[in-house]
Specification:
Elements: H1 2-18, H2 22-33, H3 38-43, H4 54-90, H5 109-123, E1 127-128, E2 134-136, H6 137-140, E3 165-167, H7 173-181, E4 186-195, E5 207-217, H8 222-237, E6 243-250, E7 253-262, E8 279-288, H9 290-295, E9 304-311, H10 312-320, H11 333-336
Parallel strand pairs: 1-4
Antiparallel strand pairs: 2-3, 4-5, 5-9, 6-7, 7-8, 8-9
Helix pairs in contact: 1-2, 1-4, 2-4, 5-10
């Protein structure tokens, strides 16, 4: 029995010394110490050992097991050290090599102008309001005095999800939602994404951005609207900016107007960009229709207000002299890095 134990110990030493990785080491451990290992098999022969010698043999078995386990732990440590050394060598970094230049992102031109717009109106006492892009038909049309037979409600112009749910075609629904939850005085701007069934070209996109403005208080007049929009245009485009107001019609404002700025390319002389007119329309505006005030829960006999809606893309095109709206959405870094 003693000779067999010595033989197992020597065989274990030889086998463990050859183990070059953790898998081979584990296989050797199972070979000698596993349930069906050589040492375990030897223990089954203890019944043939004389009773007075069993304690001595048992102690020898435990000593052999302990020595094999010690060798396994030592070999495991050596394998781990070798693996770490190999990893460090293979992943070595030459700190003297020059680093790679990182391409930093640029602020999108739409965000540049939107932030400037917000800064202008926040400085004038306005706050920012938000509303859902997937809107109820009621808020997108009916509450804005747009009847069911109005052309703007046709499926060829708007994206319907169901008979009563639509992708908002304007940011004007935020007006009504704000008036329902907040009583005058109200001064808000509501920037957001809107959707219309337009063909894509240099000046049209089915997805674009608008900024809605709303002021409701006592004794609000059209002259207040005209003054604040002129101030906004000069702050955004420069003090020499020339604007004009033209009578127009919107269902949700009365009276209504469109505001133009003088063409930034030809300065009023006429060019392809302004279609020879010398002017570029940038927003629609007007006094809030009494029906819309009532839909928002506000008494039109006591309060009045004005509203305006600005196309962000058109505003940015004017600011940076961009002549194709598609450039905003193509994510061409050559375009974006100009800003």
């Amino acid at each position: 029995m003693k000779e067999k134990l010595q033989g197992i110990l020597q065989a274990a030493k030889d086998e463990l010394a050859k183990a070059a990785d953790s898998r081979a080491l584990d296989a050797a451990r199972v070979q000698f110490l596993g349930k069906k290992g050589e040492l375990t098999a030897l223990l089954k022969g203890m019944k043939d050992v004389a009773a007075e010698e069993r304690p001595i043999v048992g102690q020898l078995v435990n000593d052999v097991r302990a020595e094999i386990e010690t060798i396994i732990d030592r070999q495991k440590e050596l394998i781990e050290q070798a693996a770490l050394a190999h990893k460090l060598e293979s992943e070595a970094i030459d700190v003297t090599l020059p680093g790679e230049d990182l391409t930093l992102g640029k602020k999108h031109p739409l965000n540049i102008v939107l932030d400037e717009f917000k800064e202008i109106f926040l400085g004038l006492g306005f706050s920012i309001a938000e509303g859902p892009e997937v809107e109820l038909d009621y808020y997108n049309f009916e509450a804005l005095n747009i009847p069911k037979d109005h052309p703007a409600r046709d499926t060829q112009d708007s994206f319907y999800i169901s008979d009563s749910v639509v992708l908002r075609s304007q940011t004007s629904p935020v007006q009504v939602r704000t008036m329902e939850t907040k009583k005058p005085p109200i001064r808000i701007i509501a920037p957001g994404r809107v959707y219309r069934s337009d063909a894509v070209d240099a000046t049209h996109s089915p997805v674009f951005h608008q900024i809605e403005g709303l002021v409701v208080d006592k004794n609000i007049r059209m002259s207040d609207l005209k003054g604040i929009l002129e101030l906004f245009a000069k702050k955004l485009y420069g003090e020499d900016t020339v604007v004009r107001f033209r009578p127009h019609h919107f269902p949700f404002t009365e009276p209504s107007a469109e505001m133009d700025i003088q063409c930034y390319r030809c300065h009023g002389e006429g060019c392809p960009l302004c279609k020879g007119e010398g002017w570029i329309e940038i927003l629609g505006c007007g006094m809030v229709h009494p029906t819309v005030l009532e839909a928002g829960g506000i008494d039109p006999e006591e309060y009045s207000g004005y509203a305006f809606g600005i196309g962000l893309e058109r505003m940015v095109m004017g600011r940076f002299k961009i002549d194709d709206i598609r450039l905003f959405y193509e994510n061409d870094v050559r375009f974006l890095h100009q800003f």
